[in-house]
């Protein structure tokens, strides 16, 4: 009789990408399950992917664009804010779901073997569906305001991958922490709110003093949003120093997150 012994991985940098590929069908299943749960018995359904960013854009336009007169680098403020809300809403959804993903899938963790990295991967892939729907509305808005896309739109997949990496890096930290300390679930809404205003959504990066740009770049979403605006709207070239700092910090955060996740996954089943 063949006996299979399941043991936790020993190497801190052992991503087990081969195992993730072997269990790719489980990844697709988790993504499909989350999509069905999200829109099950919802009267509006996928319309929420349009309503939420659209209403937020309208509020931002009235308060910050019309009343506060915040500059938008020569771009119509509705498009200026909506282009930033696209990656931000994606990130906020991934952040919120990832914090509870491991606890929510506790039955799988206790009973079935599979690479644990699949769970945070599924949480950052699922919101891409809402992103795609919201993106179509941006194209309609650009046509309405007469803003034509430039060659920079070819770089959009790169910045979308950048946003996914940021979401995954944060989820690799928050998910395991939430397994041990459930306070994370209460802190996430506050963190998302603070992080949003610390990102250039309602204001351009040009308002940040030059001497603070490097420090500001430590917010990974600053580089993501700056890149999205440039790729989609053909605004002035993104601040390369800021984007470079954001990319570097994201890579370090992701690498450290992998080490932390691999170390903590050995005790997931015991703690949950």
In short:
The chain has 272 residues and is mainly alpha-helical. The chain is built from 13 helices and no strands. The longest helix has 28 residues.
Overview of this protein structure:
- Helices cover 69% and strands 0% of the residues.
- By secondary structure, the protein is an all-alpha fold.
- The protein is built from 13 helices and no strands.
- The longest helix is centred in the N-terminal third of the chain and has 28 residues, at 77-104.
- Helix 8 (156-180) runs antiparallel to helix 11.
- It has one domain (17-30, 47-271).
Task: Map the helices and strands.
Layout lengths: L16 H6 L1 H16 L8 H20 L9 H28 L1 H6 L6 H8 L2 H18 L10 H25 L3 H14 L15 H4 L3 H14 L6 H25 L3 H4 L1
Helix pairs in contact: 2-6, 3-4, 3-7, 4-6, 4-7, 4-8, 4-9, 4-11, 6-8, 8-11, 8-12, 11-12
- Number of alpha- plus pi-helical segments: 13
Number of strands: 0
Shape: globular
Fraction of residues in β-strands: under 5%
Features:
272 residues, mainly alpha
């Amino acid at each position: 009789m063949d006996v299979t012994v399941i043991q936790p991985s020993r190497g801190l940098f052992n991503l087990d990408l081969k195992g993730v590929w072997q269990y790719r069908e489980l990844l697709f299943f988790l993504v499909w399950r989350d999509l069905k749960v999200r829109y099950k018995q919802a009267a509006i359904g996928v319309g929420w992917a349009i309503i939420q960013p659209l209403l937020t854009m309208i509020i931002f336009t009235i308060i910050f664009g019309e009343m506060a007169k915040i500059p938008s680098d020569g771009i119509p403020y509705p498009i200026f804010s909506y282009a930033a809300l696209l990656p931000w809403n994606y990130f906020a959804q991934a952040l919120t779901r990832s914090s509870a993903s491991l606890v929510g899938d506790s039955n799988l963790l206790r009973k079935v073997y599979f690479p644990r990295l699949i769970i945070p991967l599924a949480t950052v892939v699922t919101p891409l569906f809402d992103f795609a729907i919201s993106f179509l509305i941006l194209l309609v808005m650009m046509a309405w305001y007469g803003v034509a896309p430039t060659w920079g739109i070819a770089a959009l997949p790169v910045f979308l991958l950048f946003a996914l990496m940021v979401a995954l890096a944060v989820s690799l930290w928050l998910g395991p922490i939430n397994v041990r300390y459930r306070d994370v679930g209460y802190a996430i809404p506050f963190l998302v709110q603070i992080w949003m205003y610390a990102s250039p959504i309602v204001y351009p990066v040009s308002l940040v003093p030059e001497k603070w740009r490097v420090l500001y770049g430590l917010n990974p979403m600053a580089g993501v949003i700056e890149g999205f605006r440039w790729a989609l709207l053909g605004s002035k070239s993104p601040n390369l120093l800021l984007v470079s700092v954001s990319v570097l910090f994201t890579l370090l955060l992701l690498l450290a997150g992998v080490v932390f996740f691999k170390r903590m996954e050995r005790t997931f089943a015991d703690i949950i």
